[in-house]
Amino acid sequence: MSDIIEIELDKTTDPTKVATLIAGVTSLKSVAAADKVVPQMVDPVSLLVWVKLAAAAVPVITSVINLIREKDLKGVRLKAGDKTIEVDSANTKDVEALIRAMQEDE
To answer: pLDDT at residue 45 above 90?
Structure first.
């Protein structure tokens, strides 16, 4: 099972919001680490934050979704394996599909 999820944000997202999101995610007990991906392109289309999980994925993913919603960030996507979900409309079935993708990505 892959223990990494990606948070994809619009490239125009306020850097302060990105920093507070990373701090919030990192403070979760089930997260081993999180940080922003340094873009390899001159003009990236989005910002990526990687999150390394230290425990069961379901509570962590749910907590990450809640943090994103609390920060009122729109258009954010979570990716694991080959599955991407839209945080704005994510529900329990979406989280379960993301977990399945993580389990298949070994």
So the answer is: no
